[in-house]
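Researcher: Good morning. I'm working through a list of sequences from a screen, and I'd like to move beyond sequence-only analysis. For each chain I'm collecting a predicted structure so we can compare shapes side by side. This is the next one on the list. No need for commentary yet; just the structure.
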Amino acid sequence: MRKIISFMHVSLDGFTAGPNGEMDWIQVNEDIFDYAGQTTDSADLAIYGRVTYQMMDAYWPTAADKPAATKHDKEHSAWYKKVEKVVLSKSMAGQNIPKVTIISEDLRLQIGKLKEKPGGDIVIFGSPSAVHVLIKEDLLDEIWLFVNPVLLGEGIPMFKDIGGRKKLKLLLEKRFPSGVVTVKYEVVKI
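Model: Good morning. Structure tokens for this chain:
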């Protein structure tokens, strides 16, 4: 069965974005991109919430075409264009977008079917609201947190309304020269 793996940048005090969605505090560099890319390259399906999907779709299809495109821009742009995408959204229900499936109801059933299909892992980038729902429905298999050395004090919490206690098993940890620490957890199915 395919795994759903969440990738999320988080502040040390547990926020994924500032109160108005600010993400200017997130530290990313080629080391972090290369490290995460080892997993994302084997994934052939990406899940997004509506807001993150619209942000990603506005940037990644043409990111490689920009004059100052980095190695990561070129690699991730190519990956983004080839993978199937799922958007969890009630407001986008009924829209017909190539290579995109909109799931607006029966989340547990629809995501369960995706996990049973043959293929690579399924990744979810950002999308805190979608991650909250996937955790609550016990559909998330791994959580990768990129803990940034910053305290925001307020914002969008990493974990909210997740349906009670969840047990996690630490799989790995890695420190980057930038001060970012990544931790990878398996969500233990009880």
